[in-house]
Amino acid sequence: MIDIELTDIAHGGACVGHSDGRAVFARFGLPGERVRVAVTEERSKLLRGDVVEVLDNPSPHRIDHPWPVAGPLGVGGAELGHVEFDYQSEWKTYVLNSTLRRIGGQRLVDHLAESGIQPHVFPFDGDRANGGWHTRTRVELTVDADGFPAMYRNGTRETVAVGHVPLAVAEIDDLEVFGGSWAGQFRPGQRLRAVAPSGSDPVLMIDKNAFWAPLMPAEPYVREDVVVGHNLYSYRVRANGFWQVHREAAAQLIAMVMRAAAVQPGDNVVELYSGAGLLTQPLAIEVGQGGSVQSLEGVRQAVEDARANLREFSWATSRTSAVSAQLVGKEAGDVVIADPPRAGLGQEIATILAGTGANRIVLVSCDPASMARDIRAMVDAGRKVVSMESVDMFPNTHHFEVVTALV
Ligand SMILES: C[S@@+](CC[C@H](N)C(=O)[O-])C[C@H]1O[C@@H](n2cnc3c(N)ncnc32)[C@H](O)[C@@H]1O
Q1: How far apart are CA 64 and CA 51, in angstroms?
Q2: For ligand 1, mutation pick of 242, 295, 301 (most atoms within 8 Å of CB)
Q3: Which fold has domain 92-126+246-406?
Q4: Which pLDDT tens digit goes with each residue over 116-130?
Q5: How close is the Cα of 242 to the center of ligand 1, in Å?
Q6: Fewer CB within 10 Å, N side or C side of the chain?
């Protein structure tokens, strides 16, 4: 145990303090607090740990963690549960700006300021009433040695049985994964995924098999209906495939990307990392028959879903391919949309993309550090950021989403 004062917020959900010349990254603290930290990892220059007691100066933004098993020294997945809802977006706004400065450098900060952009992470208004809990339509679990649904203790492979997951929407509770009827159905080490789609009944995946209820096999596909303004987009999605987890995220992401992309009828769009076609479908409708959308995705099963979701739009195609520097250099589009995984595009692909003839590039980022690196590379290559919108799609965790448009 060490006692320290927390002086800053770091990217990754921890606050920062110092002990004997080493930086300490402590989860479950708040800036300004004097705290006792249980150390969970020790390296030559830094320590990591969890705040187990506030000794002095408790933050006015602290609340009791509503899900204690995910609190200090518990399972991962709710590392901001001790932070009051409205302050979580302040926290994330601070992380976004400090990461842009740390990784993008003063030049990028000045560039954004000159473009009139003030990066800010907004919460979903609808989340306030529930403090950001009960928002997720996908929940991943494992099965412990006794056959119970469990999660991993943060940073370890040690399983901890859980009796509920308050991050999940109420429809997932209806599956009663933690209740009696599934008793004896799970084997140690199996992976469970509870899925509550917007357009069909909830299912539980046990490894690769889907079930409506114990011993009732289900189709491995679900339907997602996404309403954006007056438009309804409908999708077939593999139950174990990628889909935005917050119940509002799919609609919000479409709205943000369509604003940022400003596509016109007749445009030729290239979409990288397209998943099951969440963005491809609205892009195809917007460009119309006179235009085209070419989407690339690395997972073949997601491309199969995308093709099913694009059947009515012959001018939109989905191809299985790893996004590579070589390929990005060859793809020509008026508008390019990229929604990469957490690792981002990488400096090389970002630079090559910036050098293509695209009139507009939209980058969707779920990690501010890789985003800052990629945007910096594109600005260094001569692009200009014209908008940046950010929403808290992952309340009670440190994650958030940013959509950036460059010309
Ligand atoms: C953040 S998801 C976005 C998917 C889609 N835009 C959506 O919102 O549903 C990123 C996608 O990139 C795919 N992916 C990851 N690495 C890839 C790579 N190197 N090449 C192509 N696709 C990749 C993943 O399979 C995943 O579908």
Answers
A1: 13
A2: 242
A3: Rossmann fold (3.40.50)
A4: 999 999 999 899 999
A5: 8
A6: N
